[in-house]
Amino acid sequence: MKPQTTPRLVLIDDPLSTTSEAYRVLRTNLHYANPDAPLRRILVTSAAPTEGKSTTVSNLGVALAQTERSVLLVDADLRRPILHLIFNQRPSPGLTSYLAGEGSFQAAIAKTSIPNLSLVPSGRIPPNPAELLASRRMREFLDAAVEKYDVVLLDSHPILPVTDACALAAMMDGVVLVVGSGTTPEGAVRRAKEQVEAAHGKIVGVVVNRLETKSDGYSRYYRYYGKQKKPVK
Ligand SMILES: Nc1ncnc2c1ncn2[C@@H]1O[C@H](COP(=O)(O)OP(=O)(O)OP(=O)(O)O)[C@@H](O)[C@H]1O
Ligand SMILES: [Mg+2]
């Protein structure tokens, strides 16, 4: 696999771009996805690697924080964590420190330079990520997180190679599936969706990442909920 560049916070670097606007549209769509009970725990995942989960979750986190909501971003990708690099933080202590009983909830949290946005980095990479993420302690972590923050956003490992994200899906209010445009076969996306649903997760949105756009050279995304499939803009 070729080396990746660290995902970009386009909402900070280029807030007026069409890509930044697309993330704001995603924020609004998620807000209206369940109007009676706002989605407060959201997992971002994908079928296969490198489809754009970390890029999406980071920019969505910034977009939400910019509306004065307190946001906690959690790096629950315990195999290829990257959120600490995007936000210039140390990787540890973090989620695994808390899950292993090595520190308090508060000790796992880092403040970012972005107002209203805090981060829980992954912590040290453990030998047993799936078990840790499915644990009672993980549920306790999420309960503590929603008590203190308006929205809790989780980055995760892709669905198809391992079970980590499925274990988390049932603990969430909603799951956003990121699909890399032109990279992932339709069958793989369908299998990922089925696995999330079999794990009692609720898919609340699909982000199609890396669609070519002539305006700013980065990405635009389209989304659909349920059976509806139409471009956002
Ligand atoms: N819309 C985009 N336009 C341009 N580059 C992008 C876009 N989305 C992601 N990338 C780049 O693609 C690479 C993979 O993105 P990202 O790390 O967000 O994917 P991921 O799904 O989190 O990957 P992994 O499975 O390794 O966790 C990064 O180098 C990122 O900068
Ligand atoms: Mg990632």
Description:
With 233 residues, this protein is α/β, with parallel strands linked by helices. The protein has a single domain, classed as P-loop containing nucleotide triphosphate hydrolases (Rossmann fold, 3-Layer(aba) Sandwich), CATH 3.40.50.300. The protein is built from nine helices and seven strands. The chain has helices at residues 10-13, 18-33, 53-65, 83-86, 95-99, 129-133, 136-148, 164-169, 186-198, and strands at residues 41-46, 71-76, 110-111, 117-120, 151-156, 174-180, 203-209. A seven-stranded mixed beta sheet has the order 3-4-2-5-1-6-7, with helices on both faces. α9 links the parallel β6 and β7. α2 (18-33) packs across α3. The termini are far apart. The site of adenosine-5'-triphosphate (ATP) has 20 residues, from α3.
Identify the CATH class. Answer: Alpha Beta
Structural class: alpha/beta
Assigned CATH architecture: 3-Layer(aba) Sandwich
Q: Compute the number of helices.
A: 9
Order of helices and strands: HHEHEHHEEHHEHEHE
**What is the subunit organization of this protein?**
single chain
Within the largest sheet, what's the order of strands? 3-4-2-5-1-6-7
CATH superfamily: P-loop containing nucleotide triphosphate hydrolases
> Between the first and last Cα atoms, what is the distance in angstroms?
33 Å
Let me know the number of strands.
7
On the 0-100 scale, what is the average pLDDT?
A: 90
Low-confidence parts, pLDDT < 50 over ≥5 residues? 224-233
Percent helix, as a range, is 25-40%
The gross shape turns out to be: globular
Catalogue the ligands: adenosine-5'-triphosphate, magnesium ion
Major beta sheet summary: 7 strands, mixed
Looking at CATH, which topology would you report? Rossmann fold
